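Exercise: predict the fold of this chain.
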Amino acid sequence: MEETNLLRGKQKRYLRAQAHSLRPIFSVGKNGLTEVWLDQLTGALEKRELIKINLQQSAEVTVADTKTYIEDNTDIQVVQTIGRVLVLYRPATDADNQRFSPVVEDM
C-alpha cells in the first residue's frame, strides 16, 4: 500500500516509550504470514493503535521479511524492531479508540 503518513523521529520516540511496557499480543509462527493474520493485526490496531508482535523460534520468516510484508500490504507502520519483537502503530479510525494518535498528530 502507498505510505502517505510516515512518522517523524519525535513521533517514533514517543511511540517507542509508550510501547515499552506492552507485551506482545500476536506472534508469527510456522504458519508464516497470511492475509488472515494481517486482518487480525489491523483489527487489533483499530482497538489499540499500538501493539507488539513477536516472531517465534519456529517461524520461517525473518524480522525484515515480516516488516516488509506488513508495510507493503497494509497502512501499518513498524515503529521499532528489537530482536524478534516488532512494535506496530496505526491510527484508529474510531475516535473512542484514539489513545495515541491525537498526541502523535500534534508533534
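Check your answer against the key: The longest helix spans residues 35-48.
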